[in-house]
Design brief:
The complex is a heterodimer of chains A (245) and B (241). Chain A is an all-alpha fold. Chain A has 10 helices and no strands. The radius of gyration of chain B is 18 Å and the shape is globular. The chains are: A mainly alpha (245), B alpha/beta (241).
């Protein structure tokens, strides 16, 4: 109910603002809806959304799995931490645009370059979060696992992974929002399909309803994924916690 | 099955860089089926010794021979349960081979039936201790280590839990080592008592109790306790009950 109300407030504000500014710069909701419908009818909307989602899924999976593994290693092994730390600082502070442009220059305007560039942007934050989580592992539970001679897999699955879960969830949450933002830039600069590419086209044609149609459809998809996938998953993961915050 | 312990010394370096002697001359043996009790004042190094015996701390001078491939069940001073797994899962993860009948019997003795599906965060300390006991017994250990399992529980509850431990220890042949600062617990549960000095700990006396646990009445317990008190005070000519 509160969600519905806040969506209604958003729509009302938009409509009023479009009346004040004029519908050339900010078209009212019905105009944008018409653009959404015509794009959906031609199939272009689903094609571009699908392509963007596939890129997000690939880059996110790649960055999360690689980042978690590297972060765990750096949290456990001191030498790995020392060796990896300068690289980590470099990657953390490298602007997304630099990575994307360099990737396109070195690997060509290819799908591999785009996905790699997005993944590299997300990788260091996953590493940092997981390294912190690994450092915070409870030594007393480790001792328990040693005394009871728990097999390696049992230990990882039931002792270590649940302790890392909040850190993995945090890395996934912040990482997903980062990937949503960067994927459009990568598409704008070097791909010929995807939401980012369509927004670039709309910008060149100054077609504001089209621009908003793609932006809002994209945001809607992000919202649906957050509420239907990410949040229920987190709820299930932490059901053992006493109810609070 | 036999445990031989001969620890010459164990030192510990504090964060400030000072070196402390924790153990100095611990020598004893324990046979299968015996309950050995280490009795000593708080902070004398009992837990440090248990960590060495459990194989968690290789940094000491001396020698410990544990039977090869002995299954170790340990109850730590804090329960050390996995907060994200239910009571039953906590036990099953440690003892994947235990069958349902054995687990049911164990949960019944420890009065945990109603709590199988609870998470550790929902349990009182007394209950959590019992889950830790269930976990240690479920693996059918050859060597059972109990680190102050009754500490900070109130009188009647501690007494009940002590009786439950006695029942479990007598159900099968297991080498048990119990650490406590409570002479009463030692007198009621032990077969052989090792009395420890304050830090750095060494064994000042060894007391063997021949009366079986179940046959010890209040009078026998009182005699044993008096004997322990006398030995701890340094009188070597104690009588054995």
């Amino acid at each position: 109910m509160p969600r519905l109300l806040s969506s209604a407030v958003f729509l009302a504000t938009w409509w009023i603002a479009s009346l004040l500014i004029g519908d050339v710069k900010l078209p009212p909701p019905p105009a944008v809806l018409a653009a959404v419908i015509s794009e959906a009818r031609s199939g272009a909307l689903f094609l571009h959304l699908g392509v963007t989602l596939a890129r997000v899924a690939l880059a996110f999976t790649l960055a999360m799995s690689l980042g978690s593994a590297i972060g765990y290693l750096m949290g456990r092994v001191r030498l790995a931490d020392r060796l990896g730390d300068p690289w980590l600082i470099l990657l953390l502070n490298l602007p997304a645009l630099v990575v994307i442009v360099l990737a396109y220059i070195w690997a060509g305007l290819t799908e591999v370059a785009a996905i790699a560039a997005i993944a590299i942007n997300k990788l260091p934050t996953a590493v940092v979060t997981l390294r912190e989580g690994t450092r915070a592992l409870d030594a007393s539970l480790d001792e328990m696992a040693t005394v009871f001679a728990l097999p390696r897999w049992t230990r990882f699955r039931h002792v270590i992974l649940p302790q890392l879960a909040p850190y993995i969830a945090a890395a996934a949450r912040s990482g997903l929002s980062l990937v949503w933002k960067i994927v459009l830039v990568a598409e704008l600069l070097g791909r010929s399909n995807g939401v980012g590419f369509q927004i670039g086209v709309a910008f060149q044609l100054f077609d504001i309803p089209l621009l908003l149609a793609y932006s809002l459809s994209f945001t809607a998809v992000v919202l649906v994924i957050e509420t239907l996938l990410v949040q229920p998953f987190e709820l299930r993961l932490f059901r053992w916690r006493p109810r609070a915050a | 099955m036999r445990l031989e312990v001969d620890i010459a010394s164990k030192t510990f370096t504090s964060a400030a860089g000072e070196v402390h002697d924790v153990l100095a001359g611990i020598r004893f043996t324990l046979e299968a089926g015996e309950v050995g009790v280490l009795v000593g004042p708080s902070g004398c190094g009992k837990s440090t010794m248990l960590r060495i015996l459990a194989g968690l701390d290789p940094d000491y001078r001396g020698h410990v021979s544990r039977p090869a491939a002995a299954r170790i069940g340990m109850v730590f001073q804090e329960p050390r349960l996995l907060p994200w797994r239910s009571v039953e899962d906590n036990v099953r993860l440690a003892a994947p081979l235990a069958d349902e009948a054995k687990l049911s019997a164990l949960f019944a003795i420890l009065e945990l039936d109603a709590h199988r599906s609870h998470f550790p965060g929902e349990l009182s300390l007394g209950l959590a201790r019992r889950v830790a006991l269930a976990r240690a017994f479920a693996i059918e250990p050859d060597f059972l280590i109990l680190d102050e399992p009754l500490a900070s529980l109130d009188g009647p509850l501690a007494a009940r839990l002590r009786d439950q431990i006695a029942i479990l220890v007598d159900r099968r042949t297991v080498m048990t080592l119990l650490v406590t600062h409570d002479i009463d617990d030692a007198a009621r549960l032990g077969d052989r008592l090792f009395l420890l000095s304050p830090r750095p700990a060494r064994i000042v006396a060894e007391v063997a109790i021949r009366t079986p646990r179940s046959a010890r009445g209040d009078a026998a317990i009182a005699t044993i306790k008096a004997d322990i008190a006398r030995r701890m005070a340094g009188d070597p000519t104690g009588r054995v009950a």
